[in-house]
Amino acid sequence: MRPEDLFDREMEWADLERFTATSSPGVHLGILYGRRRMGKSFMLRRLVAQRGGIYHMALEEEPGPALQRFADAVGARRGLGPGQLHVADWTEALRLALSGPEDLLVIDELPYLMTAVEGRVIPSALQSLIDASRDQRAPGPSGATHVIVCGSSLSVMSELLSGTKALRGRAELDLQLHPFDYRRTADYYSIEDPLVALRLYAILGGTPGYRDLVGTASPQSAEELTDLILHTAANPSHALFSEAEYLLREDPRIVERSLYHSLLGAVARGAHTPTAIASRIGRPATALAHALNVLQTAGLLRRREDLLRRRRPVLEIADPIVRFTDLIVDPYRPIYEDRRGREALGLADATLRTQVYGPTFEQVAREWVTRYASPETLGGSAGLVGTTVVNDSRGRSQYEVDVVALPAGQGVHDSHAQILALGEAEDSDAPRPLSDLRRLEKIRDLLVRRGYRADGATLLVFGRSGFDVTLVNEASGRTDVQLVDLERLRSGE
To answer: Lower Cβ count inside 10 Å, N or C end of the chain?
Structure first.
């Protein structure tokens, strides 16, 4: 049964239950991964507590002690004390672990074991045991045995099943834990005010583990949220103040940290292509390809592709706490370290509004269209949701479209694509005017002239502070216009 203290994660828990319920004989492999503080260990400990088995958390330690700690974990299930079970290597250790009565073995933070030469044999050893069990040549239980390996280093974990790696084709479960979205984050912190929840989401994101770092805090006003940030992400004594550095350390490939910090800072400040990033930090673009790829596979950068045009995808920061550190903390670090955090936040206020709150509101608008907007609202079921840029050659202008929704089954870069919805999302203090709708109408007309099937596209105006009366009056008499305020983003369809 799903643990009572597990928030959300219904689908992920169900996936774990289905995997461990597999009854066919042999060794069954599952892989669980995600950024640090996503709740992976929390879920796995509760899974083992319910089903029984061996749970082993790897640590950063030398190869000999690491192997013995695993042997002790296996020995404890056999009634042996620490140091009584000795194994020669990881192949023998895993064979012993899978030859007992337990039907579940969990190895948490596997990448720590694979930093040493001795631990790099673990995937090959698991491959051998899995293949032998399928051939019914392996000693051990006649029933099913389930192995789950878990880790926070996305690059290491995602490569376990790639190309010619030993475990390619062996895993039956390949599960990644993602952060909560805006709605789930608001529920997780029990925040009633949708604007306060939006601001917290923009700074801390939906990482579940940050809840433990902020205690029982549940800010219900802007003042309470500011106090929370001053005591956590803007406080040199708090773990969140250095979280961006911890995230970089998770990937063993990131050695020259100054370069990676510079790359993240350049992207956070508006350089979204390799050429622009190279210009910002003063290095050739060709010299940055590997480092940018590392940051993407590490989950620190993400690519956002134009859904309609074939052009270079833009790069953006994937984790809000990294963006907050780069834009709001680093430029004023001496002031924060002098314990004048409120002053530093005041100096960074304009940046916070335009480069943190603004992009987050656009992201939340796309989340809403993807996950919560009903087919009745959009005029159909949404498939891919993203952004695009539309050129107006006659007017010699260019329009960036915050939300583009394609119908389910529609692919990208189709010059005759059907467009389900177009959206404008502005995080402003003033109600959105009628000009927002007129802008979307012009964009829709431009797309129709270019051959896209956009004439029936629903026009979505997202307003953090609502809408003025002229826009409300016009929208009320039309079936192709939807106005989406914060309340609707928080709980509506």
So the answer is: N
